[in-house]
Amino acid sequence: MAAMNFVREAAGALAGLLAGAVALGVAELTAAVTGARGAPVAAVGEAAINLTPVPVKEFAITHFGTHDKLTLITGILVLLAGFAAVIGLLAVRRRPQRPCSRW
Questions:
Q1: What is residue 7's three-state secondary structure?
Q2: How confident is the model over 48-100, as pLDDT tens digits?
Q3: Which of 19, 39, 41, 97 could hold 31 in an S-S bridge, CB 3.0 to 4.6 Å?
Q4: What is the Cα 97 distance to its own chain's centre?
Q5: Where are the alpha helices (DSSP H) in 35-67?
């Protein structure tokens, strides 16, 4: 029983990752047509940079050097993948609703 639950949960997490990848791909394709400022990862990165306190920005530049933007984008993508996997996992854990007998 536990092995079956693990497989089901792993499949849910994988489905969440795939759904997130497809959604991000569609958003990036749309941004390619409408303009680069509409790219979701770039927009989130720009917002994160604008909202980050100056000492934190200086710390990132000092420790990551010229790779600070690459590190930021990698972090955004890792968090996005984590959220997508958790949503997929929660989707398979949710108990299905019983159909309404009134219809």
A1: helix
A2: 989 999 999 899 889 998 898 899 999 999 999 999 999 999 998 876 666 66
A3: 39
A4: 27
A5: 40-51, 54-64
Q: Tell me the pTM.
A: 0.79
List all residues 6 or more positions away from 58 whose beta carbon is below 8 Å from its beta carbon. none
CA–CA gap between residue 92 and residue 31 (Å, rounded): 31
For 33, the token pair is: 């047509």
12: exposed, middle or buried (Cβ count in 10 Å: 0-12, 13-18, 19+): buried
Q: How many Å apart are CA 15 and CA 17, to the nearest integer?
A: 5
How far is the C-alpha of 19 from the C-alpha of 13, rounded, in Å?
Answer: 10
